[in-house]
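Researcher: Here's the sequence for the chain we discussed earlier.
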Amino acid sequence: MCESLIGTNKKIVVTSGMVLQDKEDGSMKDETCFGDTVEGRGRGFAEMVAKSYTDKGVKAIIFRLPPTVHGTNDHGFITIVGNAGKALGYVPYIGEGTNSWCAVNVLDAAELYVNTIETEFEENFVVAHAIQESAIPFKSIAETIGEKLNLEAKPATLEQIMPVAGFVAYAVGFDVATSSAATQKKFNWEPKNIKLFEDIKENYFN
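Model: Thanks. This is the structure I predict for it:
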């Protein structure tokens, strides 16, 4: 796709994720972070491929989503964790559950997609974080899911979660606290739809 845009100065939006982004000192991730860039592996490499075309007349927008883009009819990570809880008899978290997830309402994410396309900017490479809530302790997420399912939230090992949650078991233990302050300022974006816990209580597992 990038090849077809060479010399046009048009935008390409590459959807990526926060799970594999890294901040070496362990602090909150921001738009300057980059993840695994090993060739052929991970979304970090896709980001770098897009960036390599920015000196060829292509504008690359890296659009990063959090582990949960929540909303009505969501079949993503929150639903998978809840279904894992049903299978285990409790909603799992790893260790003490102090690792944090970031989150965004699907309607706010959609608005930001539009804003990134319609906003004019001089740079050839821009990173946008679709993050409404920056740092939610995963134990609290598990407890909120548990309240809805009438299940206890309990610690579990990766090996216990894998058979019922697949690859999402790894994400349960990831710490992906992430800022979107620069994104909100650059793209005049202010998330305003219901947040994760309210959404779980109203629209999940009904």
